[in-house]
Amino acid sequence: MPTDLDDPVISYIVQYRPKPVTGRDFQHDVTAGYREIRDVTGMEYDVSGLEAFTEYELRVMSVNGVGRSPPSRSVDATTSQLGTAVEIP
What we know:
- By secondary structure, the protein is mainly beta.
- It has strands spanning about 10-20, 35-40, 45-50, 55-65, 65-70, 75-80, 85-89.
- The protein has one domain (about 10-89): Sandwich (Immunoglobulin-like).
């Protein structure tokens, strides 16, 4: 976990997973089921290859010379009919 706040951000990691259903899935394990996209360098990223009409949970971590930051708060997004992308602002 990065501890040197003066070390510049090198890249970001986007984590995503289908939103857990209450009473099932990952509700007791907040780290389970996430897929990672590493080496993201921009402030926006389109996640592709998602299922149509599915609600996803997404979060971001920064990476610097010390390591990864803790994950951001997760945000929820639902894909459209095509299910091809969710934009992370």
